[in-house]
Amino acid sequence: MRTSSRSKVFAVTAVVALLAAACGGDDDDDSGAATTAAPGTTAAAGTTAAPGTSTAASEPAGTSASEAATIRFALDWTPNTNHTGLYVAQAEGYFEEAGINVEILPYNATSPDILVGTGAAEFGISFHASMTFSRAAGSPIKSVMAVLQHDATGIGVRADRDDIASPKDLDGMTYAGFGAPGEKETMAQVIKNDGGEGEFDVVTLSTAAYEAVYAGEADFTEPFYTWEGIEAELRGTPFKIFRPQDYGFPDEYTVVVIGNEPWMAQNEDVTRRFIGALQRGYEFAMENPEESG
Predict the structure, then answer these.
(1) CB–CB of 282/15 below 8 Å?
(2) Is 196 left (phi over 0), alpha (psi -120 to 50) or beta?
(3) CA-only gyration radius of the chain, Å
């Protein structure tokens, strides 16, 4: 989620497992998200655990700290509840038990898709849509876990904008965006599906996009309604959010964990241990939200 705020939204974080085709699955599946539900949660329709994988991290016998594998994990934004399972796994010692040192790379405006795809990180946080575009463009990345199984974003405008009653009213206005592939096209299609022309100006502001809309310097942006939606209310400038699913778009995973496919193929055991430990972290966070916050 694109913010540094905190809130109790762990119910949104439906954790799923394991592993990508790089560790023995089907190479024809572009997304690579082979998943299973954590105890007490519901898995997305049609998802199953990858053959031969385990949902718990195993401790490699005789592995010392000096011998532990090192994994670099790229964040997509400043730390937030999308990352809770990662930090819990680190704090609870799950990675250490699995014989893995995890180096968390802070967000620096470089897409985790690029960092993971180029081998500058082994794993990272991404989004269903962006990693699909990246993979289609030839990036060797693969989804290995779906952290948010449903779309948690929408088109956000200030709630006090009486001149914007639905997406079609956004024609001719200014969108504050993030430069993600397909971003403009998605917004345009939502507007068209509501009867508009899908014509608007775009300014790429990244982390400043929300501030621009709060301040009235841009008309709309793409918030997480579980994050920026809450932040906007706390600021006294609440959002009115139009969900794409209400305008002809299918639901989709939002946040996913991606891995470098060639690296995973060469390090299958380390990959399984890492994903197992990471899943334990998310499961703990779901079961113990107060303690994990």
Answers:
(1) yes
(2) beta
(3) 19
DSSP 47-88: --PPTT--SSPPPPTT--GGG-EEEEEE-SSSS-GGGHHHHH
DSSP letter string, 230-286: HHHHHHT--EEEE-GGGGTPPP---EEEEEEHHHHHH-HHHHHHHHHHHHHHHHHHH
What are 150-202's pLDDT values in tens digits?
Answer: 888 899 999 999 999 999 999 999 999 988 878 899 999 999 999 999 999 99
**Residue 118: strand, helix, or coil:** coil
Cβ pair 19, 271 in contact under 8 A: yes
Domains along the chain?
10-37+65-149+252-292 (3.40.190.10), 155-247 (3.40.190.10)
pTM for the model stands at: 0.68
Least Cα distance to 222 among 172, 168, 153 occurs for 153
The rounded distance, in Å, linking the Cα atoms of 241 and 210 is 13
What is the spatial distance between Cα 211 and Cα 205, in angstroms, rounded to a whole number? 9
- 273 close to 135: Cβ distance less than 8 angstroms: no
